[in-house]
Fold each of these.
Amino acid sequence: MRGAKSAKWLAGAIVVALAATACSSGEKDDKAAAGDSKRYVSINVGEPQKGIIPSDTNESNGSYIVDAVFAGLLTFDDKGGIEYLNAESVTTEDSKLWTVKLKEGWKFHDGTPVTAKSYVDAWNWSAHVDNVQQNSFWFGDIAGYDDVHPAKEGAKAKADTMSGLKVVDDTTFTIELKEAMPFYQYKIGYSTFAPLPEAFFKDPKAFSEKPIGNGPYEFEKWDHNKVIKVKAYGEYKGANKAKNAGVEYKTYETPEAAYQDLMSGNLDIIDQVGPTDLANYESDLGDRAISQSYAAVQTLTPAFYSKSFKDIDVKVLQGLSMAIDRETITKTVLQGTRTPADGFVAPGAQGKQTLDTDVFKFDAAKAKQLIEDGGGVPGNKIFIQYNTDGGHKEWVTAVCNSITKATGVECEGDAKPDFATDLEARDNDQVKSFYRGGWVGDYPLNGNFIKELYHSQAESNNGHFEDKKLDDAMNKADASKTLEEYVAAYQEVEKELVNHMPSIPLWFYEMNGGHGEEVDNVHVDWHGQYKLFDVTVK
Amino acid sequence: MPENTAVVKETPEPVKAEAAPAKGAGTGKPRSLWSDAWHDLRRSPLFIASAVLILVLLSMAFFPSLWTDGSPTEADLANNYLRKPEWGAVFQPEWFGYDIQGRSVYNRVIYGARASIMVGVLVTLIVTFLGTLIGMLAGYFGGLLDTVLSRITDIFFGIPFLLGALVVLTSFEKRSVWVVILAISFLGWTSMARVARGAAIQVKQADYILAAKALGASTFRILTRHVLPNALAPIIVVATTALGGYIATEATLSFLGVGLQEPLVSWGVDVAGAFRSIRNAPFVLIMPSVLVSITVLSFLMFGDAVRNALDPKLR
Amino acid sequence: MGHYVARRLLQMIPVFIGSTLLVFLMMYALPGDPVRALAGEKAADPTQIAKLKADLGLDQPILVQYWNYLTGLFQGDFGTQIASRRPVADVIAEAWPVTAQLAIFALVFTAVVGIGMGVIAGLKPNSVQDRVLLFITLLLVSIPSFVLGRLTQTFFAFQLGWVEPNVSLEENWHELLMPAAVLAALSLAYVARLTRTSVVENLRSDYIRTAVAKGLPRRRVVGVHLVRNSMIPVVTYLGADLGTLLAGAVVTEGIFNIHGIGLTVFEALQRREGSTVVGIVSLIVMVYLIASLLVDLLYAVLDPRIRYA
């Protein structure tokens, strides 16, 4: 999960870098190189929340750096298919014991070879409870995880390594899972599963300030809150070899400021167009404007413990869903930055299907009827909880207006001053009726959009939706023999979700960006990030 | 402190009757300050202009329906801000165009007056009460009490106002008008306390205070009947000038996202939200900004007029 | 003089401790757990949260935390950021220069233009120029800085194209002029009015009459006697205003894309980075306290009647 993209205008990132002089000299180098077909490409990516360690980075700014500096076993193509990077092959017979073969001759940027041990050591370290890595739960499927990371609060680790990981030889290792998982190769495509060099284990803190990876770019320098620079790694052997000399990730406080710099030629690529410029950017930029949907969905998630929705009749939720004029709101208030949702799974994920239902279509009369049939909302009033620092206020207001107008149910935004407060209310089961849900796909499979959100045991099921039959169906789907069966099984689950409405899907995200005249071949991947290695300079 | 609360609550009425002679003892110009001031005010164009403006704004705040039949929250996305102002449609909902939700900017501007003016007036009242109380006690009694109260005043004065308000307001999840009022007051009483303290120190040495003491008047009586009325002029000057500032502060806090919140209608909230449309629909931003400025301006002009009338040095 | 300074410095200590404690307590009272927020929308692992908190000392009682913070502060340790694990001192050191520059520009602008306007208005009270200047100051005060910031940005940068709308990463000094002017606007108006009042008052004083009677040239009367003596309240105001300008940068920096302490503190607040917020506020309080001490000492220079024993 890459965290909510920070669309807030006032708080992209912080502070000035150490010495203005250090930075300005760097700037001069770039200007001299402008016009050179192998110069650095610049993009607005803000200050990562913390130091760069693949298993500790869980927000979008840091992910950009991790993806540049590290190369994992595999990655995904635009259709959600697998593309091997460092792996020669990932195979299994029973979906439980997986064998990974690495390509020969790969090196870390410090010259040391990338071996099976680099992976196994990295994963063991990342999973270990003492190392408090934010993404440690990603290793939870591996046999022996519970020994290095006990679930009980305060418990000590019983082992230093996971029993499921075994080095066979320099380029081969095996992963034994707790249970069969037909889609496990998709999980290890997440950047958390990157290898780490020997140097890392000597001083993780120092490493996180100047990471050494095996990816297409070599980490060059980090001027905190100003710029991060990476340069192309000449000996890189993967398919995503850099076609430019390097990348500069520049921090801007507002997307508007970045946009101005793009227009004046000081910046090559922006990954976000601020609300001020949304109406105009397509005419400003012409064919250099980029808008592409990606695998992320926004929902209204009912808190099934709340007064409003405890033991609610599903008809009411269906009615509320039909009371939202997604078409008009995405066009006007959201200015075309989203596409209306037609299901629970976002496009870009395998198994995305068009559901045979009118639940997502705006129909005021039917909405009203459904809510009446379902016995109405207690108190005839609902709330939508959201965080004010994420640019959600406008659409929440519009959704509320739409619901009230169509059905007469009163609706009010329940604003939390920031994401931290919003999360706290969710954790403590204090959501009054709906909360704003956002989900960016971890891997491009439909199950990721269903199991992680609506299984009664799922970590992110903050609304406490619970349905025994659906739980069983999901467990069964997870135990499928092949990926095709898995995807098909989850398609069936998704069809059934319409009859339970564990959430009201609103719309899918679109990435709105653009690039300058000097660069070309700017493409977006399946989860809304630029493939910067592909960018060429004219 | 129930006793002290009573102190100031009682004051407004006796002040007029007894304040003037007390004042007279100090300055040698019996009855003249207040009546002179009123005399001056009636002739000041600044006062008349600002009073008229303030009356207009008050009528918006208390009787918005006099100004418009529409509602500030009625939204129709078909009117989404692509619909521009119709400058000919005076006093009609479409006069100033529509905002992003398709709500009439004119209606919102009218209904927004209430929150701003409420914040301004109530903060001024609370701050004046609190600051005067603390300042007078510190100034009149001196000694340890003065040291302690003055240091507390320094502590609050030292915290940068905007930063302090940001922190205080973030701790409230639901920010009603009252929360914003209390937060601004919590941090804003210090300058009033300093003025009141200074005035009390000046007054307490005066002969008539010593005389009152000699006659056996209670401390309570001396404070309410003698010290307070004489400290009132500078306090009123500071209060009227500060009022406009509080209105601007509320708007700034709303702009930063820690002030008032929807569904409350407020100019600050609207200005903050309108920034996104600055390129395509600048009127959504400009209209509430203009109203904020006019309101602050009216109260400042009012404060200026009162200061001119009450501050003998300026004559 | 030495005694006076020493006494003043001693008095600063309780004020400094009091205001940092107040902000510390307020930060502590905020809802939302910064350590929990690190995990984002994923459910967080309570073991990890507990461990992180223990590492950062956040599991201690609030007063112990404050004591640790304060003792650290006196050794120059501002604490560690929760998310980035970077020393807060580094973060502040990076953000401080540009904001200081901004505030000083604003202060100079305020002083030069404000005093100039005030003197011009005050020399001829109730003339046309006086009234016009009075009205300009009223107008400046009544436009909140976020409106003024947006307006100048729209007008000078977007419409006229005279300046860049945003401050670049290099933070060239000329890019800071417009933000500084916006930041200064409010104080400028107050300084102009203070100066005017003070000048009007002093014009009537005996020493000015004496100077004029002595036959001193008007330039000397105004330049040396009048302005110098009228500066006392203005200097007081400017001294107290430096802290306000530093804090007011929250708004200006957001509008003009400046990576200074205003935005640092704003973001730290949202992320519940307590030590960062308290550190910055403490610094501003220090600046304020020292500035007001300097101002009091300046009195003696400006007004020969004042002497500190």
Amino acid sequence: MTVPVLQVENLNVDYRLERQWLNALRDVSLTINPLEIHGLVGESGSGKTTLALALMRYLAPNARISSGTISLDGDDLLAKSPADMRRIWGKDISLVPQDSLASLNPSYPVGDQIAEVTRRHQRLSRRESWRQAVEMLRRVKLADPETVARRYPHQLSGGMQQRVTIAMALSTQPRLLILDEPTTALDVTTQAVILDLFRELIRANNAAALYVSHDLGIVAQLCDRVTVLYGGEVMASGPVATLYRQPLHPYTIGLLASLPRPTPGVETRLPAIEGAAPSLAERPRACVFEPRCPAAIPLCAEVKPALEKLPDGRLVKCHRWREIASGAVQLPTAPVQQTTSAPPRQRTVLQADGVTKRFGESNLLDQILGRASKPVRAVDGVSLRIRERSTLGLVGESGSGKTTLARCIVGLTTADEGELELLEVPLANALSQRSRDELRNLQMVFQNPNDALNPYHTVGQALARTIRRLSAERLTDEDIRQRIAQLLAAVRLPAEYAGRYPAELSGGEKQRVAIARAFAANPALIVADEPTSALDVSVQSVVLNLLKDLRARESASYLLISHNLDVVAYLADWIAVMYLGEIVEEGDADDVYNPPSHPYTEALVSARPVPDPAARQKIIRLEGEVPSARHLPSGCRFHTRCPRKLGAICETEAPPWRDAGDGHFIRCHIPVDELAELQAGPPDSKHEDR
Amino acid sequence: MFARALAQLTRRPLTLLGLCIVILFLFVAVFGPAIAPYRYDTIIRGAARQPPSAEHLFGTDRLGRDVFSRVVWGARDIIFLPAVTTALSVIFGTCIGLLIGYYGGWLDEIVSRALDSLLAIPALVLALVMLGTIGPSPFGIIVVIVMLYTPIVARVVRSATLNIRSQGFVEAARLRGESTLYILFQEILPGVLPALTVEAALRFSYAIFLTASLGFLGLGVQPPSPDWGRMVNEARDSVSQTPWALWAPAGAIAILIIGVNLLSDGLRRIFRYEGQVE
């Protein structure tokens, strides 16, 4: 039998908070075999980062490992001295962190930083270590590694920085790689490339890895085995294929079911896990998941279930897994079909024509001296139309201009050119020239729930002020109180939340208050900029369902912006895809997933991590970086990265809008039928070696 | 939040000590004339150059004035002037900082450069020139210190404002058509207050120091009214005969500044944890 690379047994970690020790990890066991990528999934607060740090014995000073064993290649890590650990860090265990910019030293070229690792651990000479650093950069597929090695971190894009940290982590050929959400800050297209790289390099290095993530899609695509952590305890563990195909723990079932996914032609509702993860001090004594569990029985609140080992080697910690396995207990596993929402009306809520926004980065002195630099065209002549009671989804990578476009529409940024119409009446571009009624009709939900609410105002104050400002009629205090109660009920928060401060709310609750505020005065259109990207998966589904319910009830329309195609597809009935300030494709939400589509959309769809280990996807990877909007590529803006580039015509001539029927338009030189033919081919077989 | 901060203040021994010192000096400043056994300008016949004793706690100076009484009487000016200048600097600095931080653009560029150039002038040089021209007076001191400290407060408020102005709740306020005044004072100011409180305490201690320095240079409150800075200067010549006349006011200045600094340091630590906008 092979010796596992990492073996953790009954690990307990405590944190000291306010003079008492709180149990953060309870009896966690984990085995990682050579060549294995082990996924560690959990919401924020589940203890996954604590576990990753505990494995490296790199916990905060107020944490302690109270019991358990950790062994690396059969060697007891807990018995090592701090000096031994320093030799192990970076050599036997390496970490690829979430924020690559923060982990690179800004004052040294990246090549020096990689070279330092090998110089320290392998006692290589200066020249030899530099040569190896360049070689590592070549292995992470950075074009022109000699030049990149001499660059400073800030001169590299996010994707390139992440490759540098990977190169650094792999440079000493570690036995174990710990990957702590290494792609969260990256675009899907970049993420797909980086994940391919992990797969390849871990195998080539004969290493093993622990992949910490909250994204079930990535874990399905990348990992061999997965452990689900909740409230500091292992809920379930097993091979990815069986765990996803037949989840036995109600939490795993809930997580998988709550992922938005395309359901062409059918109106659905996500089964959501209600409630929020318990804080460290408030963890239930018996089953930690019991308060949120749809299958909980009285026993669950009294006796802690044991982590049972199934015949096939899977682990599950639930009193009722046998009933779930036999089908005696049925839990929703997929979006539930819904018969509601009235269809969109023909009336237009918002029409934008040729909206353009340029940003100049020149300062006052430069302007006086006439040195104004070339402006960045963030949004370049975009036109779109949103019908009443419908949702337009806007997708694109960072830098595509989608947020700027949204801000131009609500007026937070004044568009330089273009015309807006709200409810078929012309709308001023500048916020200051809009009437109260126009303001009322156009509200926004922001990306970050943590700064959407003023920390010094209670929930009630925030809602009351919005209602008072935007309502046409004069309202009495009693009217306002009633409306606040109504709004809180609509976003399913208890009425007493009116007296709370934002600091007393969880992230999901804050976002619900922010949604209530946007709906405070019956708006016609709500612009939601990445409304769920800062939230956990289980909370995301609650917010998405809420947005869907409110659309039907309040008869509002949405402009929904997201980099997550699945989130957009769940809510939107119409999708527009943006690239470098232009819309390159728009059409019915169900059509965008299927050919014919713009090569860029095709790449986005292909890059999206599907939470199904058996899924076969076309592998289309966009190489290179999004070009700067300051120096837009000539012709088709996508030609520098397009995998279906025709030739010179793409570089010289702007592509025409091609009609694919039913209002589906694609901006490409390739005719629609040809695109359909090209894209209809069978999906590439998935990474053969799996 | 501020109630919680106050509760925390009393939990740190050093901060509590600072608070006690400040309260003691405030008490002396308010009730000084009632505490002091003599008036500040009473010359006690035949009692010149007396060392500290039960009758004259800090001894007497070379003119025969009771040093303890003069220190007690002087507390009022040394606290009142810096308090006024701090209050005015904080008010002006906050308004300027909020405006340029919120609007940004060319307004910020012009005003910030102007503030920078004010900051570039050495404090004492500016004070000497100004007070030399308009003549030494409490009003003159207030004008000079406010001119010196307003830019510093404005810069602190500006940078705090820059952090807050792009947050969602400020944009939400704009989207419901709030006036700029409402946004500045209702939405942004509460978030600036923690940094501002710390800065105000720091300005206060510097203002005390500067006021005393100006007094030492003879540009402060004019004789015969007592000024700790000038008392130090006057006692300097006869330090070998009446060291107490020098040590008493100098020690009072030192203790007061240490007290204010301990307090402001405590405030800074508390607000670093408490005042952060999550």
